[in-house]
Amino acid sequence: MIPYGRQDVRQEDIESVIEVLRSDFLTQGPKVPAFERAVAEKVGATHGIAVNSATSALHIACKALGVASGDILWTTPNTFVASANCALYCGADVDFVDIDARTYNLSVEALRAKLRESADNGRLPKVLVAVHFAGQPCDMEQIRDLSNQYGFRIIEDASHAVGGKYQDEYVGSGNFSDVTIFSFHPVKIVTTAEGGLALTNDESLAQSMRLFRSHGVTRAPEQLQQEPPGPWYYEQVELGFNYRMTDLQAALGLSQLERLDEYVSRRHELADLYDSLLEGFPVTRPYRASQRYSGLHLYPIRIDPSHDRRKVFEGLREREIGVNVHYIPVHTQPWYRARGFGWGDFPAAEEYYREAISLPMYPSMSDQQVEQVVAALEEALALK
Ligand SMILES: *Cc1c(COP(=O)(O)O)cnc(C)c1O
User: Fold this and answer.
1) Which residues carry this modification: N6-(pyridoxal phosphate)lysine (predicted)?
2) Do 183 and 277 belong to one domain?
3) Could you identify the atom of ligand 1 that is nearest to the CA of residue 196?
4) Active site residue 188
5) CATH number at residue 50
6) Separation in Å, CA 259 to CA 47, 68, 245, 334
7) pLDDT band at residue 265 using 50, 70 and 90 as cut-offs
8) How many CB atoms sit inside 10 A of residue 109's CB?
9) Tell me, what's the pLDDT at 295?
10) How far is the centre of ligand 1, averaged over its atoms, from the C-alpha of 184 (Å)?
């Protein structure tokens, strides 16, 4: 089976994890802050807050931005459910902005129209979660202009875009948003097993996210509300969580991070090969927008509607090709349907979903495996 995504763990990664196992700290030692600094430096952000998943990072980002009951968070329906759920954890509501038919990212046109309408009825969002689908950055400059005009805050869900660039700067540099989120799940670009990270250039957001990561408990003198009676003293000043990353995970991440650029450039080689081999197939290849360098977490194609997507998908799986579909639109999930959403609400995301198949894409994939996938696709398309 050629999987759709797969981690690349090498001997040096294994050795750095073993080194932690032999050290004094399995968690809350030196590796987590070292990893936070390394990621922040790599992408050009001021602060990095490592956590146990991107889902946790989204949650603490929302908490730090003050998302609460009565607020609304907007995101795209073409994402993993976590990009929307973070608002519900905070007692806020979620709404969606339909996607652009070419990039499959949230459509700036749809966003502009929805903002105009929502300003009239007083239901503007507090936060927009912009998801860089498949690793291709959203149109951040225009989104930031709209945020200045309408006063919402921006979280970039860059789970797919670690190592990607927008206008020649790494995603995560924070030039166009308040917080950027990375995921280090094994199918993503670099891994810590489970793990995530929030990046920001705002000192007070960083402090707040650190508090929410660890029980809302602090020892920092400037955060204490009472006079410390002794050196053992700490205070709980927020209702936080235990979302900490371990030193084992951070050591793996630090070792993986050294190969980030290599990984993303290999993904580009694979995408180029797919692009050329799929020439003339009844499929739409991923569109690459200008001034963006995708992290290329995914290589999603659309199957021409003259073919049965399900048959093609099953034909590929029968041929041991681990294809997947990204994403079932979030608003069609039973949980969201029970809250008033339904099929037909965001037609562009639904149309894309009906035709989408993600082909295998991971850095240790060989050119020959790409050829194997394309040969299997050719057979599966002939099935009708
Ligand atoms: C994977 C993913 C997440 C969640 O990441 P975890 O680290 O598994 O919590 C969130 N958003 C998007 C877009 C993702 O792909």
Assistant:
1) 188
2) no
3) 7
4) yes
5) 3.40.640.10
6) 21, 39, 21, 40
7) very high
8) 12
9) 98
10) 8
